[in-house]
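Hi R.,

Here's the chain you asked about this morning:
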Amino acid sequence: MLAKTHDDIRRIYDTVETVKRLSDRIIGIGPINIIGLDGILALLPIPGLSTVYSVGAGLILLTQGLRARVTAGTLATSVVILLIDSGLTTVEDVVKMIPGAGALLGLIPGGIDAIFQGHLYAAHLIQKDIKLTTYVEGKAADAMRDGSHQDHVADMRVTKGKKRIVYLG
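And the predicted structure, written out as tokens:
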């Protein structure tokens, strides 16, 4: 369901922030992200667990981006980042299934997955797009008809950092 109000947009932003923190920032020192749930699960010797989490968290991020109507470029970039992140996780899960050496060899892609913070990158892109957007409750056709669209454009231009208008109606 697409966002209809400013409150919906705020909740979407907060949901993206929660996924970002859980996935890639459970443990951090100051501005340095050490590891998140995605990396922790990648290091566990349970095949499939980290892949399920990585894909699920990625789908949540993309769904929230769609709900907030972020740009197609932001969504496409996020998809590529999340595919790389989930691909690393899948490779790690496949390697873990090698009898004998699987658990040890699985640490290599698992370690790379812990370092590559794809959910954090994708979430940051989605949040940045939300911040750059002026959201207007109502329909674009109504704003065009009553002349308020020009006011929205003027407000967007004077508000630092805003790049586009999205009507939520």
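Residues 77 and 109 are 22 Å apart (CA to CA).

Let me know if you need anything else.
M.
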